[in-house]
Amino acid sequence: EKQHAEWLLSTTRSECTKQIAELDTQIQTMDEKGNDGARIEASASAQKSDSQGVISSIEREGRKLLSTFKRQATDCRVELKNLRNTVCGSKKLKQEVITIEAKQRKGARLEINDCSVGSWRPQECMDIKVAQQLEKQGIFNPQKAVTARRPLHSILHKCGFGGGIQWFLRGKVSPPQTPQYGANCPPLRLKTVCNDFECPVDCELGDWEGWSACSKTCDGGLKRRVRPVEVYPQNGGDACDATNDEQTCNALACDRPCLLQNWGPWRACTRACDRGMRWRSRKIKRAATGDGRCPRTFSKARYERRVCNAQPCLHNWGRWRACTRACDRGMRWRSRKIKRAATGDGRCPRTFSKARYERRVCNAQPCPLDVVCVARMDLLIGIDASGSMGLSGWKAQRTALLQLVNRMALSKTSGIQLGILKFAYKITILSQLTDDKKKLISAITKTTFDRWTTNIGGAFRSMKGMLQFGRRDAPSICMLWTDGRPSRPSSKYDAGLGAKTLRSSCRVMVVTMRPAVPKSYVAPWVSHPKSQNVMVVNHPSLMVSKVMQVNTFVCGKVQRFLDFANGKPTTTTTTAKAGFR
Predict the structure, then answer these.
(1) Do the bridges between strand 534-536 and strand 507-512 make them parallel or antiparallel, or are there none, so unpaired?
(2) In tens digits, what is the pLDDT along the chain, a chain of 581 residues?
């Protein structure tokens, strides 16, 4: 729950920090856009003022030109009317004169017909130099001058200072009759200056600039953008399109609740077993404004959690193991195995934590002075034959082992099977597991002192092999007697590795015979509980006097020697199925 609360607190802090950073960024962006908008507005105002002055000047000039055009058009119409009247009067006068002359000659009346021409057909405006060249060739229509090397656009003149040349052409409708009296044809070609004006320049606009900040945060505002005029229209060019644009924004009401994102994924369960918790949450997509509200981080609208993996992590408690000793304060224990392994960040109680391991003191009564081990078990004893023992220590160790054999009830069916090995540099198996006391005593008596290094790892591995001759229905105990440390650091690692392998098959016990080998040094080798599987004897010579303590140390069921000799039933008992790994 603490981990969950810490996660929630961290998530809340992260969301707040993120929102503050986003708001700061928005404020900075709005300030920058505001400054840009003010700069653009000032520039646009200056351009507008200049443009208005230019427009006023153009309008005045246009009005003056229009007035001049109207006056000249009126004068032209009057002059044309006068000319028509003059032509018409001249024709009548000429006809009357010819009629009078014919009467005087007493001849026939003559009809006078002048030359008749069609309407003017304007041709396209041509470049001056090209028109002069074509004129020499007798070409006045630009369409007839087009070739593959001289396209039409290279002939024509659209605009520009000095203008171009335009021909007006017309043809004869009827020639003059009575030539001596009829008027000849007027000119059939007329050359004029054309397109003598500056070329029009169309308006050119730049790209749109970014949108300004919205004028309101809610209830409908406006955002604007502008684009600059890069080329203004001149000489009748196309006018500019709109240089500013507006859009509505923030049309929602000012008082509105926040908008939440969709639910996030369910988080992994906080525990693999023993009732964990999984949850999911929703983040804020859009913050509340005005008097609008937003659900709290851990409200039902934004946070959901469910119980998960409610099954127990551990099995039920196992049975209480038998007491490790028949007397002198032994130990019994029980444990719980893992039913489901932890996953992710889940944790599992340690092997010897209170949740998985319990022990109690048992058989606290003192042991009798002289007892016999009557437990049913397979016992392996490894004795130290290295040089550090010394000859006297070796002899004391061997004597103690002989006395221990005499205080054990050997039986293949209901008692002890005993196996013995000695270890120095080499490992020597003195006897495999057997209930033959004479064979055991003979093997112990005949063995000799090796005087070499201490190969404890080899001793443990040899015991592992000797257990194959044991009984499946009897507990196994492997006890090592030693007075020294392994010879090299690598030998210490080898000893630990051998002991770890052996603990899976039997209860490992160690008797140390010198202060140089304290309990803490051999504790990693022995089975649990550690305090019940390590015995300290200060010197090998004291082993003879400690035989009874060794007997009760290893044996889970003892009987007084006199009672055993007289065949009385056992009263002080316990089954030593120890060997917790």
Answers:
(1) parallel
(2) 666 677 777 777 877 887 788 788 878 878 887 787 788 788 778 888 887 888 888 888 888 888 888 888 888 888 888 887 777 777 777 767 777 766 766 666 666 677 788 888 999 999 888 888 888 888 888 888 888 888 888 888 888 888 899 999 988 887 776 556 667 788 888 989 998 888 888 899 999 988 888 887 777 788 889 999 888 888 888 889 998 898 888 877 777 888 999 999 999 887 777 788 899 999 999 888 777 889 998 899 999 999 988 877 778 888 888 888 888 888 888 888 887 777 666 677 888 888 888 888 888 888 888 889 999 999 999 999 998 889 999 999 999 999 999 999 999 999 999 999 999 989 999 999 999 999 999 999 999 999 888 899 999 999 999 999 999 999 999 999 998 777 676 688 889 999 999 998 999 999 999 877 788 889 999 998 888 899 999 898 999 999 998 988 898 888 888 888 888 876 544 333 333 33
Given 3-state DSSP classes, what are the helix, strand and coil percentages for the chain, each rounded to the nearest 5? 35, 20, 45
Burial class (CB in 10 A: 0-12, 13-18, 19+), 44: middle
Residue pair 474/507 in contact by the 8 Å Cβ criterion: no
Which stretch of DSSP H or E encloses residue 577? none
- What SS3 string covers 503-528? HCCCEEEEEECCCCCCHHHHCCCCCE
- Dihedral of the alpha carbons of 75, 81, 87, 89, in degrees to the nearest 10: -120
Cβ proximity of 120 and 169 under 8 Å = yes
Strands 276-281, 303-308: parallel, antiparallel or unpaired by DSSP? antiparallel
Look at residue 444 and give its three-state secondary structure.
Answer: helix
| Three-state secondary structure of 95-138 | HHHHHHHHHHCCCCCCCCECCEECCCEECCCECHHHHHHHHHCC
Residue matched to tokens 């351009």: 47
- Give the tokens for residue 42: 């000032």
CB 126 within 8 A of CB 134: yes
Q: Give the integer Cα–Cα distance in Å for 338 and 349.
A: 9
Q: Name residue, tokens 């049309």.
A: 251
Given a contact cutoff of 8 angstroms between Cβ atoms, the answer to whether 434 and 443 are in contact is no
Say if residues 528 and 581 touch (Cβ distance below 8 Å). yes
Cβ atoms 183, 204 nearer than 8 A: no
The burial class, CB within 10 Å (0-12 / 13-18 / 19+), for 1 is exposed
Distances (CA, A) of 166 to 117, 155, 159: 20, 12, 13
Cβ atoms of 482 and 513 closer than 8 Å: yes
What DSSP state is assigned to residue 200? P
Rounded to two decimals, what is the model's pTM?
0.47
Q: Which amino acid is at 193?
A: V
